[in-house]
Amino acid sequence: AYVTVKLGAKKDGTFQALDMKGVFNTGAFCTFGAELPGVCGAMTLAIYRIPHQRYFGHSVYTNCTSAGAMRGFGNPQGNLAMEQVVDMMAEKLGMDPMELRMKNIMKAGDPWCLPYPCGTTELAECMRQGAESIGWERRGKQSEPGSAKLRGMGMAVGTHVSNAWPFCVDYDNAYVTIQPDGSAHVASGVPDIGTGTSTSLVQIAAETLGLSMDNISLTYGDTLGTPFDIGSHASRTCYAAGTAIKAAASDARRQLLEYAAGYFNVAPERLEIKKGVITPVAGSLEECAGSGLCQLEEVKEGKGNSVTVSELSYHAHVRNKQFIGVGRIVPENAPPWHACFAEVEVDTRTGQVQIIKLAAAHDVGRAINPMIVEGQIEGGVAQGIGYALSEEITYNDKGRQQQYSMHNYMLPTAEDMPEIHSIIVESHEPTGPFGAKGAGECSLVCPASAIANAVANATGYRFKKIPMTPERVFKALNS
Questions:
Q1: Other CB atoms within 10 Å distance of the CB of residue 124
Q2: Does residue 319 come out as left (phi exceeding 0), alpha (psi in the -120 to 50 range) or beta?
Q3: One of 83, 343, 426, 441 is an active-site residue; which one?
Q4: pTM of the model
Q5: Does 441 participate in catalysis according to the annotation?
Q6: Is the terminal CB of the chain with fewer CB neighbours within 10 Å at N or C?
Q7: 95-141 pLDDT per residue, tens
Q8: Which structural domains are found in the chain, ordered by start?
Q9: How many angstroms from the chain centroid is the CA of residue 276?
Q10: Could you give the 3-state DSSP secondary structure of residue 413?
């Protein structure tokens, strides 16, 4: 991709105008070449409040390998250009890069790239926590005078999506069935491609139903036995499928409590389910004992003020009563936010760039499973490091791809990983399940930009082409 950015600001740092262009190599076939320029432009323009914006992006056919969808889907390309230009603007204005960003970032309620105002955002808090973690106050003071190894710090901010709407169609459906033994079966078409979806979705169902996770079974990714799902992409699985499952579980829970209310002579809203047990919110189920309406022997005999879901489910089962909840999503999108900070050391004798520490702070709404979110952050950071420093596809003069295996396509290994501080900044997103947003791709958007800004801070040289391999860095610093 070739991305150019022209940014205008007032002397006080207020952004006024942005002109951005992107040309993307889609290879011999279109594949995702039509959608990618739109995502690149929309997500890059979504970061800052800029009254005058223009973007033009298009894909071109070449005789190179066909391009495909990857984590970030066009967003890292635009972010790399935009965030370096923001740092250049800060330098020109004599401002701290973080101060300049704080002044211009998008705020809740601002108009932006999607057909409704910007929703919840804790990007400012992400920046504050990331800066504290990295020790931003040390920026510009790390290098020893006369040292061949130069240290610098850089930062970048960005956003992404929680599903594919409105860029393309996005919907989801789910079924939740209460079984005769009181367990629940969840059917969702979304696959788990290693992101932990099958754990998070069970958590959402269990929390909604008031059951333990070991009482939830999940069938997913089966085109024969589950509702249709458009796939695991656009950071949508927890947000979209989770919303549908929460709706289906809420529907099943409503049916269950209405059935319980009819037999206990208590209004459904006076009942709750916790840990698989139905109890009254106020009062006692003993109120209805002996009324003729309560048909559970334990309550009729005054032995208890609660009933388990398994007891009630079997009671319904023998009377041909089923509880089947259906849920779907209404198209929404709730972008997550990310602030990435990197500290690097550049060896001017070899051109080697070593990342000392990287702090990645994410507003993911409510973290349904913090460990899974941390894994997503660390995975995206690892890919971002490879994107910045080593991964590249090249062609010879006959148009043949030179990287044919993992032997010469240089992925970062465990040895290349720095200290990573994953920071989860929670907010409440009203459109997501229990306030959650997507978290799968945002972590790849900013690391390369932050690393490039850190290298520029250390060396005074700005790399406009990545990866920043030792050969390129050495040549640039010694030319």
A1: 17
A2: alpha
A3: 441
A4: 0.93
A5: yes
A6: C
A7: 999 999 999 999 999 998 778 889 899 999 999 999 999 999 999 88
A8: 2-162+333-478 (3.30.365.10), 173-328 (3.30.365.10)
A9: 31
A10: coil
